[in-house]
Amino acid sequence: MQVAEEAAVERDALRLIFDRVDADGSGEMKRRELLRALRCDTEVRALCEGLPALTPLLQPASFKAAFAQIDADGSGLIDRSEFMPFAPVVALSLIHI
């Protein structure tokens, strides 16, 4: 798969995760919504497992820090503009470590 195709697949996965987690349709992910989705929605969990930048959300010990890192404005909520660029940016930073 070419880089552009991989990026498109990742963007689609991120959109799907966000839409499934944002259960109330507010345009923001609440911590409670994300925890519930990771616990109860096997598709969300599988998609997160497939995106290395999101795997810290799957571990209780790293969830809080990962959520805070995605929540760029510190509001306690993650909106689409914070979530969509998060995984690609973190993945690129991991390449340079």
Q: For the terminal residues, how far apart are their CA atoms?
A: 24 Å
So what's the overall shape?
Answer: globular
- Radius of gyration from CA coordinates: 13 Å
The overall pLDDT average reads 85
User: What order do the SSEs take from the amino end to the carboxyl end, as H and E?
Assistant: HEHHHEH
- Class from secondary-structure proportions: mainly alpha
If strands are numbered along the chain, what order do they take across the biggest sheet?
A: 1-2
Number of strands: 2
Helical fraction: 55-70%
Instruction: Report the sheet-strand fraction.
Output: 5-15%
Largest sheet: 2 strands, antiparallel
Low-pLDDT sequence parts: 90-97
| Count of alpha/pi helices | 5
State the gist of this model.
The protein has 97 residues and is mainly alpha-helical. Helix content is 66%, strand content 6%.
Question: Would you write up a description of this structure?
Answer:
This protein is mainly α. It has 5 helices and 2 strands. A two-stranded antiparallel sheet has the order 1-2. It is globular and about 35 Å long. The model is unreliable at 90-97 (pLDDT under 50).
